[in-house]
């Protein structure tokens, strides 16, 4: 299957390389949020910290337009989870035997 920027492949979303900023920290033509989140949790970050880091890096790496949105859901092996989004509007569906909710993310970069 051909990889197309901005679409899902397995459990990873590649962000489109349309206008990346050139900074000392990020010169790649795309940012793999899934890899970054797993790497940060492997370094000891909580799911909330990892999700916020991914969204922050997206904000730093791209010249974003008002219509752009990115949402991240992180899950640790312990079952602890969190979410973050670039802007309001991203929601997370949570369903358990005791709960059926749509939740706003814990972290929003551009409120």
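^ structure tokens above, recovered residues below v
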């Amino acid at each position: 299957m051909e990889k197309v920027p901005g679409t899902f492949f397995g459990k990873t979303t590649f962000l489109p390389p349309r206008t990346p900023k050139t900074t000392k920290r990020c010169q790649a033509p795309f940012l793999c949020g899934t890899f970054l989140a797993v790497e940060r949790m492997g370094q000891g970050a909580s799911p909330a910290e990892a999700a916020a880091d991914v969204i922050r890096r997206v904000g730093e790496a791209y010249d974003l337009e008002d219509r752009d949105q990115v949402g991240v859901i992180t899950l640790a092996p312990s079952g602890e989870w969190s979410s973050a989004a670039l802007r309001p509007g991203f929601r997370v569906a949570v369903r358990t035997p005791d709960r059926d909710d749509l939740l706003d993310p814990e972290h929003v970069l551009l409120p």
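The longest helix spans residues 47-61.
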